Amino acid sequence: MKSSLDEFAANDRIKQLRKTLRLTRDEFAQKTGIGTNQLSNLEHKKQKVYAWHIEAISNEWPQYGYWLSTGKVLPDAGQISPEIEEPHGHLKVAEPPPERR
């Protein structure tokens, strides 16, 4: 019986995260310790994601560990996805109202 789960879903999530972070493959590889060629293979689904890949990425960006592994989020536990994080990056900080004299 074949699983309906996409066996390369984690590969897609890694690529999505790298693009959301606006990092080149070289930059992402340097931060995670995953080789650039291996990262390319992961993103092009030529290689499956192993636990150590998730661990290496989670060491740099711990808030994405659960999402990378499962595709799910636990915001109350600080486990988010780029879809949750990205809008926050575009939010402007409100200026305090001017003081009245």
Please provide a written account of the structure.
This is HTH cro/C1-type domain-containing protein. It comes from Methylocaldum marinum. GO terms for molecular function: DNA binding. This protein has about 100 residues and is mostly helical. About 50% of the residues lie in helices and about 0% in strands. The N and C termini lie far apart (about 75 Å). It is built from six helices and no strands. The protein has a domain of about 70 residues: 434 Repressor (Amino-terminal Domain), CATH 1.10.260.
Give the helices and strands, then pairings.
Blueprint lengths: L8 H12 L4 H8 L3 H8 L7 H10 L4 H6 L11 H8 L12
Organism: Methylocaldum marinum
GO molecular function, one term: DNA binding
InterPro entries: Cro/C1-type_HTH (IPR001387), Lambda_DNA-bd_dom_sf (IPR010982)
Largest sheet: none
Number of helices: 6
How many angstroms separate the termini? 75 Å
Question: Percent of residues in beta strands?
Answer: under 5%
What are the key terms here?
434 Repressor (Amino-terminal Domain), mainly alpha, 101 residues
Summarize the structure.
Residues 85-101 have a biased composition (Basic and acidic residues). By secondary structure, this protein is mostly helical.
